[in-house]
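ok so I'm stuck.
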Amino acid sequence: MNRYLTAPLLTAALAMTFSTASLAGPREDLLAHYASAARAADPAFKAFSAERGKTLHTQTFTGGKPATPSCTSCHGTNPRAAGKNATGKVIDAVAVSATPTRYTDSAKVEKWFKRNCTEVLGRECSATEKGDWLSFVLSQ
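replied:
not stuck anymore, here's the structure
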């Protein structure tokens, strides 16, 4: 290859690489973080599943608080609709299509996963469960 073309081509390739990486947003970063953690926990992990996330959202559990046996206890069955907590406080819809600002602050996402998973499942959610659930609500 012509050495005079090598530097401009390399520069263009690097620029495209870094500009593509900067297109990833906070939600994609969260999913990438959870995917990395899921692979560390289970080398057979392939990808998140919105279908598994939907099952997690609607499934009834017995390990958590009796008043919150499922995510739907507060968030309802329709992710695009607002929910209500036990005291009657309205909770914004979990679907990004209905609440576009959701899942952009990783600290807030982690705070709510920790609280809600403990109340519903009786334990913290795994990285795979978090990624599956996020995949579900991001697809709604």
